[in-house]
Amino acid sequence: AQIRYSIPEELTRGAFVGNIAKDLGTDVAKLAAANLQVLSDSDSQYFSVNVNTGVIMVSERIDREQLCGQNPRCFLHLKLAIENPVEFYRIEVEILDINDNPPEFPSDEVSLRIYELASLGARFPIQPAQDPDVGTNTLQTYHLSANDNFNLNVKARTDGGKFPELVLERALDREFRAFHYLVLTAEDGGSPPQSSKIRITIQVLDANDNHPVFDRPSYGARLVENSPLGTLVVKLNATDVDEGPNGDIRYSLSSHNSAALRQIFAIDEQTGEIRVQGNLDFEEATVYEIEVEAKDMGSPTMEEHCSVVVEITDVNDNAPEVILTSFSSTLSEDALPGTVVAVIHVRDRDSGEQGKVLCHVSPDLPFQLRKDYEHQYSLLTSTHLDREHVAYYNVTVSASDLGNPPLSRHTILPITLIDVNDNAPQFEQASYEVLVAENNPVGSVLVTVSAADPDSEQNSRLSYSILRAGGTDPGLDPTRYLSIHPTNGQVTAKFPFDYEQTTYLQFHVEVSDGGSPALRNRTLVHVFVVDQNDNAPRVHFPRAGEDSATQFRIPPSIVPPALITKVVAIDADSGRNAWLSYHLVEATDLGLFSVALRSGEVRIMRALQETDASEHELLVVVRDAGEPPLSTAVTLVVLVEEKGPEALQGSEARAADGGGLPTITLYLIVSLALISTVSLVGMAALGIRCL
Length: 691
What we know:
Blueprint: E1 2-8, E2 16-19, H1 20-24, H2 28-33, E3 37-40, E4 47-50, E5 55-58, H3 64-68, E6 75-82, E7 87-96, E8 109-115, E9 123-125, E10 139-144, E11 150-156, E12 162-168, E13 179-188, E14 195-205, E15 213-214, E16 218-224, E17 232-235, E18 238-239, E19 249-253, H4 259-264, E20 265-267, E21 273-276, E22 287-296, E23 303-313, E24 321-327, E25 330-332, E26 340-347, E27 357-360, E28 367-373, E29 376-381, E30 392-401, E31 408-418, E32 426-427, E33 431-437, E34 445-448, E35 451-452, E36 463-468, H5 478-481, E37 482-484, E38 490-493, E39 504-512, E40 520-530, E41 538-541, E42 550-554, E43 563-566, E44 568-570, E45 580-587, E46 593-595, E47 601-604, E48 615-624, E49 631-640, H6 645-659, H7 661-690
Parallel strand pairs: 1-7, 8-14, 16-23, 25-31, 33-40, 42-49
Antiparallel strand pairs: 2-5, 3-6, 4-5, 6-7, 9-12, 10-13, 11-12, 13-14, 15-18, 17-21, 19-22, 20-21, 22-23, 24-26, 26-29, 27-30, 28-29, 30-31, 32-35, 34-38, 36-39, 37-38, 39-40, 41-44, 43-47, 45-48, 46-47, 48-49
């Protein structure tokens, strides 16, 4: 929206300009709540807004002449910005001129020397008065005091300037009057009008009676701006019918020209060529009017004046300017599409199509430009943002004009996305399988679980903990056996594992990030305890105390390979560690007895002879298949006795005792088969899970 006000210059501070709340049709309370701000295009803050009343007031002295010079219209531009939602209103304040400056001549007196033979109608320019006001308040007319010889002519220039000239209406006669004293009054059109005066002293000279004459009253030329130095503007031609020095002409720039114009143009006093000697800038001036005078070398000198109007053609020599009115270099990654990131003002000092500016950003970025109104754009987000995908953007705003060729300017806006906790931690594996040998050292690392969180800083700081897995034995609390480092995920054992008590353990590891609220994830860890050969075989039969032997009696007539006894042993380990073998290590006669490798049966291998000893001591070693193997020894004493029924009864008793041995062996075989089956099923399940 755009609102226009008009006020006169030189208003006092606090003067009323307009009621923005009324003109916008909004409630004053809403303006105060919306954080109303006044933004000025100029360096000074000439206006302020009372947010409680909505009234725009003058806050600094406004001098129209200082702001706009001789421009017929003078404007100050404001922008009102409100928040929630962000809106901009453009206010244009026209500064009206008041008649606060009188016309002023450069000096109080001016002296002219006029030849008495000056022809009627000759013109003598007087330095004009200057009035910085504009319109009707500026210089309007001149008045010349009454006299017999001169009349006043006011020459109007194309830029509105008025130059007084004395016109000779009646021939001069030096002998009659050598000096003429006139008063020239300059008056503006204000109400009431203001004026100033200059005294003119005219000295009438004798002799040189012909002045130079230009071949035309005015000259015109057209140049493009930025023309190179030395470019010819125009060549003047003036003639004087006098002879000798009175007809020798010299050209010069009139004193009416400003010092700035003299720095831009130079004239050759001999040839009358006007050339460029300074920078031509269309943006500073579109037309120059050069006052030139031609003087002869007579005594006194006679001169003639003409004007040269130089029009400047604009070229596209100014690149657009990009000004950031508002900009935030940080943006939350959860910002919604359409969020305003920056407000951009563009301008181009060129004119016409060359001064029109178009802005754009790369379509590959998640940002877009919205044109709010002429010369202002807003940079908005166009899609959802993801810091984990792209954390930093360099948004290049390109501003191009419509010149041929076009000029452009690129401004880079660095935008950093602020992280939000929108990503849960992810484990490297969905589950972990760990093989742990029993009797492991306390504090040894069993497994290291690792998770990653693509968020940053506090949102990516991870913490690990152990939880009981569903479906597990309530008595197997994993936190009793295990601990986990909260930051690096290393799972360590609190106690050594005993395969004979625990063969398998499963638990969950939970990881949580440091966001608010925290996000979590879990993984399942399977711990398989591997058996170690840590149990020696234990002899169940025959039973004997420490450092004692078991005695067996056999008759001398025993027939080989008669069974004497059977050594029965078991091993608490499993697998190969529980595979037992029996060995006869020592005997009174190694060739008389044998021990079965797997069953442990002790048999006599030959018939007894009279020369054989009556007492035989056998040392049987039971050894498992572990690495290294563990063993247990048992000592058997075999007595050869002929006791008749008693010996037979002892033999039968031992045979009866031996009748229970196959049952124990059966138990061992069944246990071994069950352990093997469970192991095979576990390995098959592990293989299926891996696949």
